[in-house]
Specification:
Helices cover 28% and strands 23% of the residues. The protein is of the alpha+beta class. It folds into two domains: 2-79 and 127-156, no CATH class; 82-124. A hairpin with a 5-residue loop joins strand 6 and strand 7 (138-140). Helix 1 (82-101) runs antiparallel to helix 2 (105-125). The relative contact order is 0.19. Bound molecules: zinc ion (2 copies). The site of one zinc ion has 8 residues, from loops.
Length: 159
């Protein structure tokens, strides 16, 4: 199942509109915040193949063209809220500092070590999300496109 999430184009509304994609072509979804109808133009590459190829890599669509704008460049990031990651680092940092202050060096390293382990577990389990550079629409459940890399500032500045 492919899921596309995009921001509402109607300023100043910042609603997020999600839609599940099962076929190519245009769809319209109303913004949950302001009710504005928002268009998704699903390219044929992205739509899952019609049953015939189920079970193979071909059954999942691949992002080549954005469904929300003319963008053709995408980056891949972890599907994990960055703010939550930051909060975790701060909490573990405070605990480690506390142990350090009481000269519990072993516990200090244990705390920092467990943060590394948790980070690795998260990295292993969370999915990847493909994001459009131009409009920041997010694509989940799509096949991995080898042309896409992590976020690149130089590419981002073109838009
Ligand atoms: Zn809206
Ligand atoms: Zn886009």
């Amino acid at each position: 199942m492919i899921k596309i999430t995009r921001k509402c184009p109607k300023a100043p509304c910042r609603g997020r509109i999600s839609t599940a994609v099962d076929k190519a072509g245009p769809t319209e979804v109303a913004c949950p915040v302001c009710g504005e109808p928002v268009k998704f133009e699903v390219p044929a590459d992205l739509a899952p193949a019609n049953g015939t190829m189920v079970g193979t890599a071909q059954s999942t669509g691949m992002v080549k063209r954005c469904a929300c704008c003319p963008g053709r460049e995408f980056f891949i990031r972890k599907d994990f809220p960055q703010r939550l990651g930051l909060v975790m680092v701060v909490i573990f940092g405070v605990i480690a500092t506390y142990f350090y202050a009481y000269e519990r060096i072993g516990m200090t390293f244990a705390t920092l070590g467990s943060l590394v382990v948790i980070d690795a577990i998260i990295f292993f389990f969370v999915g990847k999300v493909t994001v459009c550079y131009r409009c920041r629409a997010e694509y989940r459940g799509v096949a991995y496109n080898p042309d896409h890399e992590g976020f690149d500032l130089a590419t981002s500045e073109k838009y």
